[in-house]
Amino acid sequence: MNNVLTLILGGGAGTRLFPLTKYRAKPAVPLAGKYRLIDVAVSNCINSDLKRIFVLTQYLSSSLNRHLSQSYAFDQFSNGFVDILAAEQTAHGSSWFEGTADAVRKHWMGLDNYDCDQVLILPGDALYTMDYRKMAEEHAESGADVTIAVNTTPRRHAHHFGLLKIDDDGRVTDFNEKPKTREEQAGYEAPEATLGRFGMKSGGEDIFLASMGVYLFKREVLHQWLMETEQVDFGKEIIPNSIKKNSVQAHIFDGYWEDIGTIEAFYQAHMDFLQDDPPFRFARTGAPVFTRPRFLPNSRLLGALIDRGAVADGCNIGRATIRNSVIGLRSKIGDHSTIEDSIVMGADHYEPAPVAPWVKDADNQVPIGVGKYCHIRRAIIDKNVRIGRDVKILNERGVDEEDGDNYYIREGLVIIPKNAVIPSGTII
After folding, report:
1. Among the residues of 72-131, which ranges form H helices?
2. pTM for this structure?
């Protein structure tokens, strides 16, 4: 795989994941208690023997840049690297990235210095385990100019993805980026014979072939599209037009794949992680997900009752009850509190005692973590949140969407944003 250069796109604003993206880029959103979303894409590359990796960043990228620099350092005798390419002023332009293809175009002068025959372009915000070597082998055998990784999606999610059609030889014959209406989606329903290649049947539900946003280009073909056109987006412009002018092949990927593009998808991926047989494994033999080594102490469970939970390193959990929840790094949960069907992301640091005097809850200081006698259900608690005593976060009103003081409700889930303070006795 030494002839492949990898580009991970991490520059989008991630508006559908707000407020988790209020202070960070989408690929930097914490995942499963101790990882970041970007770790999945980088780990897939490392496990596929792809070690020349660029991450293109733009929006709120400081925490993403810091995580990458602290997590991925190859030894000095290899030619491997994970480098960051940020939006910047150059002789070729001073504007922000106008799309995924424009991000690559603006950095092509620097990329052109690297010897490669193929360029692999990946999203930085999807959850899947994939060996890109298989895709590269198919790409070479077919003689394709472009190969697109393809999975399936039901109609209810079809508007989030590029939909495509393929022939019996796996050649892509049509592509429609994120069609919103049933009329726009009409004709893209995958036939039963095609679904059989994924080991699937429709079961009466309309199923579509969806682009995973994973593209493998011949270098000269990508260069031609970037240098000879002004098209700025892969999904909206370059891929549909490539089908008309180039040989575009589909790589069938029938494993677990989840695009973490919405709050609902983010939450459900964590709930799937807690199943007896989770569809995605972070410690899969031969293909682990890597992240930053933090050297934290073991978690301390002081009388806690945990039923189907995942607890990361460095936590202090009192006589609390935790059911079907993910508890992130350095979390502190007080006695007699109950956490159900929730994600607690933890903290970026341990807080010195006593708590800083400017962080107050009425007459009482509120430390980072969840205080005593709290009840939290179907919530996402972002990092460094301070929750006082006897707080109820239950959404008993059944609100679907709402912006409140130090909280948001999205798709019925209560989200407490990073660094928020929830005073004692609060009911949400």
Report:
1. 100-106, 108-111
2. 0.91
